[in-house]
């Protein structure tokens, strides 16, 4: 298959992806109640749109949860879409824009596969991404993943292009402009989902290993330029260092508590939820931001006292990171569970074969580093389906596409 035909097929897949996402959003996922995270994103976005900054409204209902400071990127994006503070379900305008972003992600996945494998693999990956159920329905939720994916994959594509240019021109500084652009996008992705922070040192180390010091520096400086102003704002607001968001402490505590099961958040573990409420009650009068270092200290103390137990917990986290089973999956309906798990399990064995081949191709390294950063996030905190879908599932699609595209072709 030539490149021109591959591009046409990738665009056709993007159109199909847009149709499927709009159909799901407006003909099936309608009138559904908002989750806790969705309500918080919309509340923050409404405050931003009214000029009150990234703050929660005075009468915002949180139930038994806490109002932690969140990353600013996604609420800022939502604020541009005039969010309705009284919305009881995902607003139509947001679902429509996110469906378009989802179609863009289809194109990006196709391009990543084409660069990593071949034009035919790019077309295969694009059509898989267009119809892949979790990537279809994520656009209908008010979740940061919809914005994070095109930004993160944009950084990955620029990194791959910079690597390719440096190799073609055989110069360590070639591709500097692309690296700066990749760093700016990576920093933007950090402000949408702080887990992207783990991607930055991985990229820097990769280019240092290739002795491309200037490219590594350009990437890191560009990312820092984007993130640093928000970090300084947090230092003034909270009186201590908070890189992006103040929810890291409770997330780390949740994933490394004696009651942790190795997968899922507080909603999937009622016993752990009760323990978290009791832990807060033992520290009355402290804000959510003031509680963050206390969560960290308590979790680290328990890990140091029980290193053997923690190693076993890490093994559980590693298993649940790549195998889509765990306590949080049981919270969904059977239909949802099957649509999420079956496509992943069908592609995963093929992807393992493709991964073995891609490890020898530098053009695929930025995507694999992004996937590795998600694995690191899952091991340090905890794995969950929402951590898996935006990066690991597209990586599985890209890895599998090369193998699937080669089936049926015989060498001449």
Structural description of this entry:
This protein has 412 residues and is mainly α. It has a domain at 144-239. Helices cover 68% and strands 0% of the residues. It is built from 18 helices and no strands. The chain has helices at 3-27, 36-49, 73-79, 92-116, 119-131, 133-137, 145-169, 176-190, 199-209, 213-238, 248-255, 270-281, 288-305, 307-322, 334-358, 365-380, 385-388, 392-406. The longest helix is centred in the middle third of the chain and has 26 residues, at 213-238. The radius of gyration is 21 Å and the shape is globular. The chain starts with a helix and ends in a 6-residue tail after the last helix. The model has no long low-confidence stretch (mean pLDDT 91).
């Amino acid at each position: 298959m030539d490149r021109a035909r591959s591009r046409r097929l990738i665009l056709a897949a993007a159109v199909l992806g847009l149709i499927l996402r709009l159909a799901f959003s407006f003909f099936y996922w309608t009138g559904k109640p908002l989750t806790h995270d969705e309500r918080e994103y919309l509340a923050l976005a409404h405050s931003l749109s009214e000029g009150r900054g990234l703050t929660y409204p005075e009468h915002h209902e949180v139930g038994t949860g806490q109002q932690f400071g969140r990353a600013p990127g996604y609420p800022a994006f939502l604020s541009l879409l005039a969010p309705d503070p009284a919305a009881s379900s995902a607003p139509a305008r947001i679902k429509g824009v996110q469906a378009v972003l989802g179609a863009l992600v289809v194109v990006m996945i196709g391009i990543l596969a084409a660069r990593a494998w071949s034009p035919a693999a790019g077309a295969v990956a694009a059509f898989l991404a267009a119809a892949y159920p979790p990537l279809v329905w994520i656009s209908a939720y008010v979740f940061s993943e919809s914005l994070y994916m095109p930004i993160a994959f944009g950084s990955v594509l620029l990194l791959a292009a910079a690597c390719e240019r440096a190799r073609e021109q055989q110069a360590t500084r070639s591709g500097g402009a692309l690296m700066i652009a990749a760093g700016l996008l990576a920093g933007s992705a950090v402000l949408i989902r702080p887990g992207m922070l783990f991607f930055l040192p991985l990229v820097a180390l990769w280019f240092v290993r290739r002795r491309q010091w200037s490219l590594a520096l350009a990437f890191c400086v560009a990312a820092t330029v984007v993130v640093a102003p928000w970090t300084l704002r947090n230092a003034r607001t909270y009186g201590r260092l908070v890189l992006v968001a103040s929810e890291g402490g409770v997330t780390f505590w949740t994933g490394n508590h004696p009651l942790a099961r190795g997968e899922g958040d507080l909603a999937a573990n009622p016993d752990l939820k009760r323990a978290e409420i009791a832990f807060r009650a033992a520290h009355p009068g402290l804000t959510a931001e003031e509680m963050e270092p206390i969560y960290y200290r308590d979790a680290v103390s328990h890990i140091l006292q029980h290193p053997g137990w923690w190693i076993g917990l890490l093994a559980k986290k590693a298993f649940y990171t790549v195998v889509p089973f765990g306590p949080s999956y049981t919270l969904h309906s059977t239909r949802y569970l099957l649509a999420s798990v079956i496509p992943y399990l069908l592609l995963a064995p093929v992807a393992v074969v493709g991964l073995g081949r891609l490890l020898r191709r530098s053009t695929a390294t930025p995507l694999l580093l992004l996937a590795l950063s998600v694995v690191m996030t899952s091991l340090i905190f905890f794995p969950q389906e929402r951590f898996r879908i935006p990066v690991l599932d597209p990586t599985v699609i890209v890895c599998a596409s090369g193998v699937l595209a080669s089936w049926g072709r015989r060498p001449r």
